Amino acid sequence: MVFFRKIFILQLVGLVLTSNFTDCDFEKIRMDYLNIISKDLTCTDCDATLRCEDQPDCLTKIERLTLHPTPGCKSLPEELASRTEATLERSCPGYYRKQKNNAQAMKKRKKREDTIKRCQKIVSNLIGLWRRFMRL
Amino acid sequence: MTILGIAFGIVFCLLRVVSGESGYAQNGDLEDAEPDYSFSCYSQLEVNGSQHLLRCAFDDPDVNSTHLGFEICDGLLVAGCLNFIKLQEIYFIETNKFLLIGDSKICVKLGQRILTCRKMNIVHIVKPEAPFDVRVIYREEANDFVVTFNTSHLQKKYVKNLIHEVAYHQEKNEHDWMHVNLSSTKLTLLQRKLQPDAMYEIKVRSIPTDYYKGFWSEWSPSFHFRTPEAKGPGKMEPVLLIISILSFFSVAVMVILAGVLWKKRIKPIVWPSLPDHKKTLEQLCKKPKKNLTVSFNPESFLDCQIHKVDGIQARDEVESFLQDTFPAQLEESEKQRLGGGVQCPNWPSKHAVITPKTFRGDASLRCLAGNVSVCGTPVLPSSRSPECREGGKNGPHVYQGLLLGPGTTNATLHPPFPFQSEILTLNPAAQGQLLLTPLGSNQEEAYVTMSSFYQNQ
């Protein structure tokens, strides 16, 4: 009985934490990106390879790339991740923040330059996805 | 009774407690009320490199802020809260840890006790930095003043779009300010909208627009300038003066020329005169000259070539025939006539039509000048002698240069010209009306023929 209860709770949590971004205020997200988030995204040799079909799909991929970096690039600049999360949280009903410990991001500030270089590919893809989102 | 007393006692106590909490003292004076800790804040982004500034102050200047502090929580890139720095009565914080997305909570605290809080969005309380370097340049050729100024927001990342307000006034009119709003850093003021020879003061301030919201910046330092004096009524640009004089003289010359040439050149073109039919007719139908030869003596027509015309023939055929054979025929007819024979010249079966064209340049035809009728009808003279003419009954007959059709009568024509009455006799076999068929195919050709014949005279 306890076992089945735990499974039920886990499933409920998973259902709550999974966002499909279909009910978001896309205009508000566009303005946040245009005036704030875009200032944190710069690339010298932009080579975007990822594509997205519609606005919810673009946000899904943006959120995944920003908040779940691939191996070799453990984290992106803290401003970028925090602001992306903040705009999703205030514009998408049911979205919850996934960043738990911002103190860890502060400690990593010393290795920031190395992180940016290693994560240049991810930044390029993010810029491509955001630009696609803005055009839709 | 007891119950009533208790009730009154409770009510009295309650009133006392309430009046005590409101600060109402026993002597009737109002004690110090709870201080008003309401405050207001503004932010300035990128005021020092990437550092942002947040500044707060109490609305009530009489607040004893000795042990009071401010803190900001939420809306930060870091977890927890950040405390403000106090500078006299002003509280501020300079950091780059603002999230800039979403609301932040700013609280007033006394020690560790929170007194009051307010939720604010950092990007909605932006106060831009004041513009600077205001300049006014006078452009004499354009008669205007160009106002330029600078702002530090042109080099910033976040707050770039601003609305600028330019205010100017004449220094002697202290409260009569003019305001102009613009989004760029350049403004043009027309000279005619300013007083001449007056001293003006001008200043600028800014406010964020679009995504960022907030308050007006402080005024820029004022700039003073003087407008030039008005140009006198007698003063005039030299170039303008020369152009005016040249224009005046050009117009005068044109008027004089128009007056002189009006009748001869201009009026016929502008108002062409229609021909007067009566005058034209009179010109065409002029009376013959008095010195023209008029005679009924056949011998006076010896030089004239008279040809018998038999029927209506094609003009081309006849003309060509005339060009080829006419000189030969003339000689032959002369010989025969001189020979006394009545025999008519060997006139071709085809009837020759002598048009006035063939007469041109022929001296022998001059005697026929007098034969021209009043209406200028061409006359085809006949070179035959009157005897020959009488004998030529089968041939075509010519009356006043016109071919007569087959229906011609035997009657002698009574031409309008009496001197021609005995020249021609008609074919007696023909009956019926006289058909006057003009040379050529229509009356227009006859008219042209006659008029050109008249011109030849």
UniProtKB/TrEMBL annotation, chain A:
<dbReference type="InterPro" id="IPR004827">
    <property type="entry name" value="bZIP"/>
</dbReference>
<dbReference type="Pfam" id="PF15216">
    <property type="entry name" value="TSLP"/>
</dbReference>
<dbReference type="GO" id="GO:0005576">
    <property type="term" value="C:extracellular region"/>
</dbReference>
<dbReference type="GO" id="GO:0032733">
    <property type="term" value="P:positive regulation of interleukin-10 production"/>
</dbReference>
<dbReference type="GO" id="GO:0001961">
    <property type="term" value="P:positive regulation of cytokine-mediated signaling pathway"/>
</dbReference>
<protein>
    <submittedName>
        <fullName>Thymic stromal lymphopoietin</fullName>
    </submittedName>
</protein>
<feature type="signal peptide">
    <location>
        <begin position="1"/>
        <end position="18"/>
    </location>
</feature>
<dbReference type="GO" id="GO:0032722">
    <property type="term" value="P:positive regulation of chemokine production"/>
</dbReference>
<dbReference type="InterPro" id="IPR029189">
    <property type="entry name" value="TSLP"/>
</dbReference>
<feature type="domain" description="BZIP">
    <location>
        <begin position="97"/>
        <end position="111"/>
    </location>
</feature>
<dbReference type="GO" id="GO:0005125">
    <property type="term" value="F:cytokine activity"/>
</dbReference>
<dbReference type="GO" id="GO:0050729">
    <property type="term" value="P:positive regulation of inflammatory response"/>
</dbReference>
<dbReference type="GO" id="GO:0032755">
    <property type="term" value="P:positive regulation of interleukin-6 production"/>
</dbReference>
<keyword id="KW-0732">Signal</keyword>
<dbReference type="GO" id="GO:0032736">
    <property type="term" value="P:positive regulation of interleukin-13 production"/>
</dbReference>
<dbReference type="GO" id="GO:0032754">
    <property type="term" value="P:positive regulation of interleukin-5 production"/>
</dbReference>
<dbReference type="GO" id="GO:0005139">
    <property type="term" value="F:interleukin-7 receptor binding"/>
</dbReference>
<dbReference type="InterPro" id="IPR038329">
    <property type="entry name" value="TSLP_sf"/>
</dbReference>
<keyword id="KW-0539">Nucleus</keyword>
<dbReference type="GO" id="GO:0061844">
    <property type="term" value="P:antimicrobial humoral immune response mediated by antimicrobial peptide"/>
</dbReference>
<dbReference type="GO" id="GO:0003700">
    <property type="term" value="F:DNA-binding transcription factor activity"/>
</dbReference>
UniProtKB/TrEMBL annotation, chain B:
<keyword id="KW-0812">Transmembrane</keyword>
<protein>
    <recommendedName>
        <fullName>Interleukin-7 receptor subunit alpha</fullName>
    </recommendedName>
</protein>
<dbReference type="GO" id="GO:0046427">
    <property type="term" value="P:positive regulation of receptor signaling pathway via JAK-STAT"/>
</dbReference>
<feature type="transmembrane region" description="Helical">
    <location>
        <begin position="239"/>
        <end position="262"/>
    </location>
</feature>
<keyword id="KW-0325">Glycoprotein</keyword>
<comment type="function">
    <text>Receptor for interleukin-7. Also acts as a receptor for thymic stromal lymphopoietin (TSLP).</text>
</comment>
<dbReference type="InterPro" id="IPR036116">
    <property type="entry name" value="FN3_sf"/>
</dbReference>
<dbReference type="InterPro" id="IPR003531">
    <property type="entry name" value="Hempt_rcpt_S_F1_CS"/>
</dbReference>
<dbReference type="GO" id="GO:0030097">
    <property type="term" value="P:hemopoiesis"/>
</dbReference>
<keyword id="KW-0732">Signal</keyword>
<dbReference type="GO" id="GO:0009897">
    <property type="term" value="C:external side of plasma membrane"/>
</dbReference>
<keyword id="KW-0472">Membrane</keyword>
<keyword id="KW-1133">Transmembrane helix</keyword>
<keyword id="KW-1015">Disulfide bond</keyword>
<feature type="domain" description="IL-7Ralpha fibronectin type III">
    <location>
        <begin position="33"/>
        <end position="126"/>
    </location>
</feature>
<keyword id="KW-0832">Ubl conjugation</keyword>
<feature type="signal peptide">
    <location>
        <begin position="1"/>
        <end position="20"/>
    </location>
</feature>
<dbReference type="Pfam" id="PF18447">
    <property type="entry name" value="FN3_7"/>
</dbReference>
<dbReference type="InterPro" id="IPR040997">
    <property type="entry name" value="FN3_7"/>
</dbReference>
<dbReference type="InterPro" id="IPR003961">
    <property type="entry name" value="FN3_dom"/>
</dbReference>
<dbReference type="GO" id="GO:0004896">
    <property type="term" value="F:cytokine receptor activity"/>
</dbReference>
<comment type="similarity">
    <text>Belongs to the type I cytokine receptor family. Type 4 subfamily.</text>
</comment>
